Amino acid sequence: MLVADDTKTGAQTRLLGRRDVTGLALAIVLSTFAAALTLRVWQWHPGTPIDLSGDAPGLVAEVRAVIDDGWYWFNPHIGAPFGQVGSYFPETSVLHLAIIKVLSVGSSNAFTVTAVYFFLGFPLAGATMYLLARAERLRVAPAVVVATLFAVAPGHQLMFPHLWLASYWTIPVSLWLVLGASRGRLPRRGDPRGLLLVVAGCVVVGTSGIYYVAFTLVLLAAVIVVRRFATGDRLALLQGVVVSAVVGLLALVPLIAALLGLAGGLVTGARPATRAFSESERYAGKLMDLVLPWQGHRFQPFAFLTWAYGLSDRPTLEHPTLGAVALLGCAALLGLSLAAQLQPARPVPPRLATWSGLALVSFLFYTVGGLGSLVALFLTPQIRTWSRWWVVLFSIGLLAAGYALSRLLDRSRTVGLALCVLVLALGYLDQTNPALAPAYGANSVRLASLRTYTGAIAAATRPDCAVFQLPVVRYPEGDPPGHMQAYDQLLPYLASKDLRFSFGSISGTREDDWKLALDPGNHAAFAEDLKAAGFCALEVDRDGYPRAAPDLTDTLGAPVARSSDGRLTAWSLGGVTVPDSARRRQQVLDPVILQLTAYAVEVTGGTPSQLVGPSGRLYVANLGTRSRPITVRMRLSGVDAQRRVLTVRNATGAVVASTVIRGVTIQELSFGVESAPGTQAYVLTVSGSAVVDPEKPDIAASCRVSALTGSGPEGVRVVSQQQAEVVLGSIP
After folding, report:
1. Could you give the CA distance from residue 310 to residue 55 in angstroms, rounded to a whole number?
2. Which domain holds residue 115?
3. Which of 116, 159, 320, 389 is deepest in the core (most CB within 10 A)?
């Protein structure tokens, strides 16, 4: 039973009567039919990937870990030799992973399970939006229209790589809780079934992923504040506070579990997945994005218009848009609110006033330089992609459009129904494009080719072979070289049943950063290092090299496998012998890593460097089990003629080293530290004011640190991330 407040009588109205069951069924059927037409579902077959590009391999790899290994926290098949510890990058979309777990009962194929859940997301969105629309007292026919258009939101058909975000069917549940709290009409003790419904709603929202949880909590906070000063109703206020607390606590559970699972884990620098304030500006949205047609519009002039606007200096990365129907609904809400200010005698109906207020709050967080930036600056920058608020604005805009259709239906049933059909048809045409349906055939052929390739590797080595992959690409959210996409190196794993692969360990942790001390330039020594570390094959992706890809045939013999497109080549390490392999393994897997957290590494003439602002941090990570004396060396130069002093302090504040920087003249600095097992942080501070580069206004630096290196006792490998950028990025 879903309940809604009747503002005239204060009574609770039962919604799921016979007409509503019929309307709900019609909304589900139309949403499914619209999705089937848009995605050309009849061309899909079980086992066929929806997408193999962009973030899609990362998504499917996470799902395969849930299916094969019980959960995403640890995957022994990627991130070899240690395996991927997913807890470093905790996933809060527990609801969706749980549904995946249920779906895997019918199939253990990750491509099938993710495709089925993607398809189910459309009717699920239609169902929840229909229930919200009826809870907001829209008539049945407009509610069906709103639900169907919500299911096929602009761009939904392209959202598979972000499947948890594509599962926005939880947003109407969020809005139901928010709207109930705003009116103080959530079910109370006298309505046990209603209370159960609220609890279920909190569980759905609280486990739906950090973004949708954050949006819900922000809206709840807004209505709590407004209700506190508007009515002073303490019981209603308490309802909102309790709902907020339950949703927030549920979202914290997987984060706390992940932290507990990382006890004893070694982070080599800044914590993985740490966001910067500037990202909140870069990933926010703009008003024009909401107004323009979606980038895949079936009418080419509209699509071109949006593409041309996207050539601006700061395009929005995820291309949010509202579509014509929701845009008109939002515009109507804005117009009514402005008219009410000009003509106080004609107030806005309470429902529309509430929707308008929620839309305003949503937009203020959505937009560049909005409230999201305040959150990032003063609270936390971890919620960075504020443009994802578009789905809340989209929902509210559709509700407003449905309200208008309901009013027309009240005046004339014939005209109202005709307009419902017209709006549904035009909205569908505006928001979808079957020409952009997944390339099922091409994806199936590519997957089959990869299976042949990985099968050849397994046949030439052994079923549990660990394959080292070149080039070395950071995970997740790495910046791959050449023509590679960020998660391409997961594709061989997804095509293989038994092999293990090196890609996928979390950068900034012991499980990944041991690779930084490798030197692929010396083919013979490199092969011995890999063999000592437990690898039995080496893979090279040609697309990762702007020039010629490395050829290890002279060292390892003829390749044992090559992909049909010639992009991937694999060699066996079976013929490589390693004297004193146990000692060599320790040297390879237990280096000391130096990492300077400052601006990005730049490579000029083969020399890496980093600009440092007024301060920076130098991390010394000893991946071994014994303390090691380490000598750190670096070159320093100023960014202007100003005389500055650079000071290095340890965790207790004691000065480890200090030197004077005399203008732009390059000078050497070296100092010794005792590197205990684990990671120690040293703070670098530079006197004088930072200088802003006119060509890079987002950079304010005080000096440049270049050629950061280190040395230790015999047999101990010491390498800096700066060095690795050169060595791993320029393989002959």
Report:
1. 21
2. 15-47+109-436
3. 389
The candidate with the shortest Cα–Cα distance to 400, out of 341, 334, 347, 321, is: 334
Among residues 120, 129, 114, which one has the least CA distance to residue 56?
114
**51: Cβ–Cβ under 8 A, 6 or more apart, which residues?**
160, 161, 438, 443
Q: Note the Cα 417 to chain centre separation in Å.
A: 41
Residues 115 and 234 reside in one and the same domain: yes
Give the whole-angstrom CA distance, residue 591 versus residue 513. Answer: 9
* C-alpha distances out from residue 404 to 136, 150, 342, 475, 709, Å: 13, 16, 21, 48, 68
User: Rounded to an integer, what distance in angstroms lies between the CA atom of residue 323 and that of residue 204?
Assistant: 27
Residue 125 CA to residue 146 CA, distance in Å, equals: 11
Nearest to 119 by CA among 179, 81, 71, 169: 169
Look at residues 268, 263, 265 and name the one whose alpha carbon lies nearest to residue 591: 268
φ, ψ of residue 365 in degrees (nearest 5) = -85, -30
Sequence letter at residue 19: R
pLDDT of residue 633: 94
| Bridge pairing between strands 592-597 and 718-720 | parallel
- pLDDT the model gives residue 313: 63
448 in the same domain as 412: no
Low-confidence ranges of the chain (pLDDT < 70): 1-16, 187-190, 232-233, 273, 312-313, 345, 729-732
Same domain, 393 and 452: no
The radius of gyration of the chain from alpha carbons, rounded to an integer in Å, stands at 29
